[in-house]
Design brief:
Helix content: 40-55%
Largest sheet: 5 strands, mixed
Radius of gyration: 16 Å
Strand content: 15-25%
Distance between the termini: 6 Å
CATH superfamily: Ribonuclease H-like superfamily/Ribonuclease H
CATH topology: Nucleotidyltransferase, domain 5
Number of strands: 5
């Protein structure tokens, strides 16, 4: 199994009614050098200025981003080429990140290479610590910038520390 850490930025709270602006992914291994970055043209006329501010983009900028079908096709190929066995989607906030990535894969490619499930990094850390109030974010090395590749890398660094320093039993191939 290959764990792929994903982070997304969106211009609103739900896919379809709003759009995924950009996303980043990194294969979780010791190098963290296999990354993907996609910027997607909006799929809806709806957007939130506040959400766009978080992403660092304006609506005009996003209108010039790439066709979502092209980006999701490229991401599906990247996932296939960079996975050994079944790829596992993991993110800091998989309730949010997963719903956008899953919707976009099904809408634009007809299938999701990650299947029907995802994992949540924060929940994994809470379970490892045995404390539902613990937060993993202090384990990141890469600064959390809201650039999705930076954020995915920081979260992957945290997962690697959970494995190496805290004894998490996980196979990262």
């Amino acid at each position: 199994m290959s764990y792929i850490m994903v982070d997304i930025e969106a211009d609103g709270p739900i896919p379809g009614e709003y759009s995924m602006v950009s996303f980043g992914a990194v294969v979780v291994d010791d190098k963290l050098d296999r990354t993907f970055y996609g910027r997607l043209r909006p799929v809806s006329e709806n957007y939130s200025e506040e959400a766009l501010r978080v992403s660092g983009h304006t609506r005009d900028e996003t209108m010039g981003f790439d066709d979502p079908e092209k980006v999701m096709g490229e991401f599906a190929l990247w996932v296939k080429e960079n996975s050994k066995g079944r790829p596992v989607f993991i993110s800091d906030n998989n309730g949010f990140d997963w719903m956008f990535v899953c919707w976009y894969f099904h809408r634009f490619t007809g299938e999701n290479p990650f299947g029907h499930s995802s994992q949540n990094l924060g929940s994994l850390y809470k379970g490892l610590c045995g404390d539902a109030f613990k937060n993993f974010k202090h384990l990141r090395e890469t600064k959390h910038t809201h650039h999705p590749v930076d954020d995915a890398k920081g979260n992957a660094e945290a997962l690697l520390k959970m494995k190496k320093e805290m004894g998490l039993k996980i196979s990262l191939k």
